[in-house]
Write a structure and sequence with these properties.
Blueprint lengths: L2 H6 L13 H24 L8 H19 L4 H6 L1 E5 L8 H11 L3 H4 L10 H6 L1 E5 L5
Antiparallel strand pairs: 1-2
Helix pairs in contact: 2-3, 3-5
Amino acid sequence: MSAQSKSSSSSYTPASPDLASLGERFAALLIDWVACLVIVRAAGVAGWLPEEWAYLYTPGLLVVVYTAALGFSTQSLGMFFLRIHCVNADHLGSIGVPRALVRVLLMLLVFPLVTAFIDPHGRGLHDRAANSVMVKGASRG
């Protein structure tokens, strides 16, 4: 294996911390989606946003929330409740704002999520692009 291919591949190995299951990951995403939907609907009822456009504002809010949460921490609200973390595959810390933005934008395309079913470590294209991995456990940063 060349030095270039070693550096481009993730350093994640099966000996690393326990991976979060696909069910846990989906449940965390569902919690986050519902939280964003409730906020957008409440803003619509209050007259701050047009209610009929909630389907556009909800994914937009999810992008903002995920980018901030995973850019500066390792958990979103849903991940907090399920005690899972989205961490950098190399050092198990925060993935940073640019990678968090790439991850959530790809995640909204849905197809990258489906690829997690065929990856041996459950990492979808959105995880590979952001060099992230979802793990169980205590707070990592």
